[in-house]
Amino acid sequence: MFSRAAWARILPFLVYIFFIIAVDGLTRLGFEVQALRWMYALKIGAVLATLAFFWRDYTELHRWDLGLLASAVAVVTGVVVLVLWVSLNASWMMIGSPDGFDPTTGGRVDWLMVAVRIAGAALVVPVMEELFWRSFLMRWIDSDRFQALDPAQISLKSLAIGIVLFGFEHNLWLAGMVAGAAYSLLYMKQRSLWSSILAHAVTNGLLGVWIVRTGHWTYW
């Protein structure tokens, strides 16, 4: 049904989702959320290993193709998405009540746990998600030969579907849609996956810093 190139972009995402489901299942079986915190490190390690296994298939990432201006636009986009992400938090903009990720033990922050969380969110998750949502899904909706489709030619239908699905992947669904729209339009405009990866990384990295400074652990 799918080519190797498609599976190379799907499997890292499925590995990530598997761990989310596993942690949820273990929580329902009575395991304390705090006791499962290091599952995040296992999740990121598994995703990273999957990305490394398929690296030769990610031809669009084999060279950095962003100029200074394009990089600056991506960074600014990432910052704007962060501001909107922490602002679009009304009750009707949320799905459920997330437990978040609390790296404190006995009131003290476990800085190794924080470092792993921020590194995973800023360096691994953006690559995994952009490969799946932007490089694969948005183009695949338009064409089975998705690798041959120029990002600038992605249809409005694919753009809309990608934005909605990306939004509902997150508890903050409206913020997720805003982020999905920003990263998608950036990808289509600059025709570089590194552009959306950079913006996504800036958002996630700065969000991690903001969470630690404010103690709003539910945003994780």
UniProtKB/TrEMBL annotation:
GO biological process: one example: proteolysis
Please give one Pfam family short name.
Answer: Rce1-like
Q: Which UniProt keywords apply?
A: Hydrolase, Membrane, Protease, Transmembrane, Transmembrane helix
Q: Where are the transmembrane segments?
A: 6-26, 38-55, 67-88, 109-128, 159-186, 193-212
Q: Does the keyword Hydrolase apply?
A: yes
For this UniProt entry, the molecular function terms from Gene Ontology, in alphabetical order, are: endopeptidase activity
Q: Which residues form the signal peptide?
A: none
Keyword Cytoplasm in the entry? The reply is no
Under which name does UniProt file this protein? CAAX prenyl protease-related protein
Q: What is the lineage of its organism?
A: Bacteria, Pseudomonadati, Pseudomonadota, Betaproteobacteria, Burkholderiales
